[in-house]
Amino acid sequence: MNVVVRNQAEALAAAGHTVEILTRRSSPEIARKVQLHPRVTLRFLDAGPAAPAPKGDHEDFIDAFRQRMSALGPYDIIHSHHWFSGMAALPLARERMTPHVQSFHSIAAEESTPLSEGERPESGGRMAGEAWLARESDAIVAISEAEADTVVRRLGGVRECIQVVQPGVDGTLFRPTKHPVRPGLGYVLVAARLQPLKGLDLAIEAIAAVPESIRPELIIAGDASTDFDGYVDELRALAARHGIEHDVRFVGPQNRAKLAVLFREARAVLIPSHSETYGLVALEAAASGVPVVAAASGGLREAVVHGTTGVVIESRDPLVWARYISQLLSDHEFAQHLSVAARERAEHLDWPRSAQKLLEVYRRLVLPGSAGCRHELAIA
């Protein structure tokens, strides 16, 4: 979400628009205002303690965030990128008669449903809040057709009010390596939050099932989720049970530059998530010229073109995954075909294109006579 927000904002600014990004101040050391670009301002609002807080506690800060936000503006459009911010912003947008756009980036599912249905609600009001935002916002921007379908089915959104704006990728930062693949087994990469939804157990079991003679190292890059204490220990124990504890390396969260290097040097990128609204990692891997092996979940079917830019697997059987990974490692011609096609596709999916699609949504809301999806909306 942060990558999408910042890159779309900077692309909008490059097109001549002024953007303010509002988020909660989580440390007294953070300045209240940071200039990211001459036309992009990042503001940290005092809502709740100036300290990190569990995600589930953020619901208690919504009213305070709205109060701080009310001192800012005016804005032509208010676009919320999380249900917390939407709950804060939509009532304010109504008061000001300003169009409100909502993006979710992930949508909660009942605790009793399979992980393939989506994220678990971190706080009590999430599911009702997301449904309210889907019904009442002037437009919904989804990151994929899969997410748009979920907004309709699960949240009761109106399909005509939902616009799909796919993300872009920085093809200069994420680029193929200029060097031939180094001799040896190399590594495959998983880049994700460390939580059960991301299916990291499948990645470990799949690598364990790859024949030892061609088995690569598995590098897992990402931050441990505070909502799942002990999950990393569980993954380490799983690797040990399969006898590959020395072949699995956790490198923690990486900045964008370091992550780009990890991508371009990888033999493949694995995305075993149970649910993804799109899978930006798949697009970054494609720009890096690296084949993707992805689960057939949600927007990953749109982010990866099966047999062209990567492989999309319907099964969650580690042996099936191991066969595809082994094919990529042993069939250089097949891997090279995927690599070239992936980069070619990514070159047509940049951030200026994504921002232009977003602008089309905004313009429809601010044009005279437009009322978005709520017919009572008035544009001053």
TrEMBL record:
Entry annotated with the keyword Lyase: no
All residue ranges annotated as the Glycosyl transferase family domain in the record: 182-345
A Pfam family hit: Glyco_transf_4
Molecular function, one GO term: glycosyltransferase activity
Keywords tagged on the record: Glycosyltransferase, Transferase
Protein origin, superkingdom: Bacteria
Domain Glycosyltransferase subfamily 4-like N-terminal: 2-170
Protein known as: Glycosyltransferase
GO biological process: carbohydrate derivative biosynthetic process
InterPro entries from the UniProt entry: Glyco_trans_1, Glyco_trans_4-like_N, Glycosyltransferase_grp1
Organism: Cryobacterium psychrophilum
